Amino acid sequence: MGNRGMEELIPLVNKLQDAFSSIGQACNLDLPQIAVVGGQSAGKSSVLENFVGRDFLPRGSGIVTRRPLVLQLISATAEWAEFLHCKGKKFTDFDEVRQEIEAETDRVTGANKGISPVPINLRVYSPNVLNLTLIDLPGITKVPIGDQPADIEQQIREMIMQFITRESCLILAVTPANSDLANSDALKLSKEVDPQGYIGVVNRSQKDIDGRKDIKAALEAERKFFLSHPGYRHLAEKMGTPRLQKVLNQQLTNHIRDTLPAFRSKLQSQLLALDKEAEEYRGYRPDDPSRKTKQLLQMVQQFSVDFDKRIEGSGDQVDTVELSGGAKINRIFHERFPFELVKMECDEKEMRREISYAIKNIHGIRTGLFTPDMAFEAIVKKQVIKLKEPCVKCVDMVIQELINTVRQCSNKLECFPMLREETERIVTSHIRDRESRAKDQVLLLIDIQLSYINTNHEDFIGFANAQQRSSQSVKSQSSAGNQVIRKGWLTINNISIMKGGAKEYWFVLTAESLSWFKDDEEKEKKYMLPLDNLKVRDVEKSFMSSKHIFCIFNTESRNVYKDNRTLELACDAQDDVDSWKSSLLRAGVYPEKTITVSRLVESETTTATDNFSMDPQLERKVETIRNLVDSYMAIVNKCIRDLMPKTIMHLMISNVKDFINAELLAQLYSAGDQNALMDESQEQAQRRDEVLRTHQALKEALAIIGDISTSTFTVPMPPPVDTSWVGGTSGGRSRRPPPSPTRQAPP
């Protein structure tokens, strides 16, 4: 009907579509849109209907098109229409299509000629169309009517420009033949984005439309008009709807051919990516017992290799988002566990009170002259017992990471659900079995420490040197003061907005100070904060912030940084916060102690808490034992920090690796039917079929494209129009009136 000039493209697009529809995919050639632009009652709808070959658009005076109509033409074997807002409903009567457009327009804009940029989406399926998008836009108007706003002209202009400024948009500027061509608003808008020549067409008059004159008869009348009219006779071959369709056909064909090279490259890349997988699936027999046995062995071996790589580290498949596997366990050993040990330390005042009570209770009714060994042992044993909780917690954290690693490695077994389930169950059960042994051994380490307090240890200061401990500590700190413990970026979170707000700096932590610089070149130092009397506390994360925050404060209630009582520091991840807090521990900056409710109640009901005092002799004994406890607990902590990773590594991690490598396959064989283990999932069967069909469709599409010439062709454009013939134009020579782009010639 109205678009026979485009029929040469239909076989190409249909073949490609057939190839892709077999796999449920679309052929994305990104064909251009055609936007019809013109004033009110200029004949836009008639031009649009010529391409569809059907009467389906509303008619009338004033602004009839009050919402953009996005019309998608889809090549099909039958003819029907569908609206996006009426999903599932097919329209075979195009009079009903017109009525639905009118009803949907009124639903959004009302019945008083209001407009809306919200488009109506209509699809027309037909054997006589090429996949294409057409857009019917509201007619350009200058005078508002009804409920239309005063800026109706500007609103319509902006709406039109949104469409015609797109690179893939072909503009059809429609101007009635009985209007002043030089003042055509449609041409002015079009020339702003794409100046071109003109093609004239003869649309049906209102009388023709009312008389139901069909489009075929209208095209014959149009041809007769151009051949017989003295003003257009010499340009008859460059006028009319067929000519317009031919020019558009050229544009569309060239666009497709320009698009094909990139489209072909994309298809070739997809084909190459699927080649290896498709080759594996050819001749694949899901129920072959020998295949199942071989694949079971391969899967278990791959699982073992993946687990080993995740624990020991590997250069391939590196996770760049977060720590996992061996790296996470390493952090647990050397950052989280030491931090948990320090958190178990008791309050200084509480420690001294316990020592004084121990000394007094050991002396009993008598006043002792010497510092009792038993008081030292009692306090040390109480501190050692406290180590059980962080040690058990360390085992729990490692176990959780091992289980997470097992689940990550089993992701590759998702094609075989039963195999994945059994593998996770067997390995996790083994990990849980080793858990009890590991915890027993860890608790045994603590019990060993409790069984014998070795005061002859070479690192123990002894009673004779206990009084000199403070001075020795100062000297050792002085010698290590310049040692860099950690460097990295942190955000100072509590800088006022007046002073620039939160800002990121490069921080350097040593044994004596925390300094920050403008950047990691460390040339411009912003501040140096001594670590004396500093402690760390957590800060609750704000619901508006993605940062994780901790703060440093002075235990003597002094300002830490300029006028700030605290220095709030922020990191992107909680792991970074924990790591910095562990580094601060090494520098002697400890976390704030948490007072429980029961402890608080006890302190309020015990008058001795606030009024506790000691005589000078007892105070010297307490100080001596306090120094001895510090010295001995440093030895115990050092020993535990060294033995814990070794114990867990031997009893847990290495054992699990050996189990997976040596026993997992045998356990799977004894678990049940091996054939059932290797039954593939429904998703995997669908995946295999999809890969094979996609691979075949890609080959067919490339073969189709390979037969097409990619050179563009040109149909001569009509000559540019000399508008000097328009009445009132001076200095111009009188010429026959040429047609405009889809200019509606008078009958």
From TrEMBL:
<dbReference type="GO" id="GO:0098793">
    <property type="term" value="C:presynapse"/>
</dbReference>
<keyword id="KW-0254">Endocytosis</keyword>
<dbReference type="InterPro" id="IPR020850">
    <property type="entry name" value="GED_dom"/>
</dbReference>
<keyword id="KW-0493">Microtubule</keyword>
<feature type="domain" description="PH">
    <location>
        <begin position="483"/>
        <end position="589"/>
    </location>
</feature>
<dbReference type="InterPro" id="IPR003130">
    <property type="entry name" value="GED"/>
</dbReference>
<dbReference type="GO" id="GO:0005525">
    <property type="term" value="F:GTP binding"/>
</dbReference>
<feature type="region of interest" description="Disordered">
    <location>
        <begin position="716"/>
        <end position="747"/>
    </location>
</feature>
<dbReference type="GO" id="GO:0005874">
    <property type="term" value="C:microtubule"/>
</dbReference>
<dbReference type="GO" id="GO:0005737">
    <property type="term" value="C:cytoplasm"/>
</dbReference>
<dbReference type="Pfam" id="PF01031">
    <property type="entry name" value="Dynamin_M"/>
</dbReference>
<feature type="domain" description="GED">
    <location>
        <begin position="622"/>
        <end position="713"/>
    </location>
</feature>
<dbReference type="Pfam" id="PF00169">
    <property type="entry name" value="PH"/>
</dbReference>
<keyword id="KW-0547">Nucleotide-binding</keyword>
<keyword id="KW-0963">Cytoplasm</keyword>
<feature type="compositionally biased region" description="Pro residues">
    <location>
        <begin position="737"/>
        <end position="747"/>
    </location>
</feature>
<dbReference type="InterPro" id="IPR019762">
    <property type="entry name" value="Dynamin_GTPase_CS"/>
</dbReference>
<keyword id="KW-0342">GTP-binding</keyword>
<dbReference type="GO" id="GO:0005886">
    <property type="term" value="C:plasma membrane"/>
</dbReference>
<keyword id="KW-0378">Hydrolase</keyword>
<dbReference type="InterPro" id="IPR027417">
    <property type="entry name" value="P-loop_NTPase"/>
</dbReference>
<feature type="domain" description="Dynamin-type G">
    <location>
        <begin position="28"/>
        <end position="280"/>
    </location>
</feature>
<keyword id="KW-0505">Motor protein</keyword>
<dbReference type="InterPro" id="IPR030381">
    <property type="entry name" value="G_DYNAMIN_dom"/>
</dbReference>
<dbReference type="InterPro" id="IPR011993">
    <property type="entry name" value="PH-like_dom_sf"/>
</dbReference>
<dbReference type="InterPro" id="IPR001849">
    <property type="entry name" value="PH_domain"/>
</dbReference>
<dbReference type="InterPro" id="IPR022812">
    <property type="entry name" value="Dynamin"/>
</dbReference>
<dbReference type="Pfam" id="PF02212">
    <property type="entry name" value="GED"/>
</dbReference>
<protein>
    <recommendedName>
        <fullName>Interferon-induced GTP-binding protein Mx</fullName>
        <ecNumber>3.6.5.5</ecNumber>
    </recommendedName>
</protein>
<dbReference type="GO" id="GO:0008017">
    <property type="term" value="F:microtubule binding"/>
</dbReference>
<comment type="similarity">
    <text>Belongs to the TRAFAC class dynamin-like GTPase superfamily. Dynamin/Fzo/YdjA family.</text>
</comment>
<dbReference type="InterPro" id="IPR000375">
    <property type="entry name" value="Dynamin_stalk"/>
</dbReference>
<dbReference type="InterPro" id="IPR001401">
    <property type="entry name" value="Dynamin_GTPase"/>
</dbReference>
<dbReference type="GO" id="GO:0016185">
    <property type="term" value="P:synaptic vesicle budding from presynaptic endocytic zone membrane"/>
</dbReference>
<dbReference type="GO" id="GO:0031623">
    <property type="term" value="P:receptor internalization"/>
</dbReference>
<dbReference type="GO" id="GO:0003924">
    <property type="term" value="F:GTPase activity"/>
</dbReference>
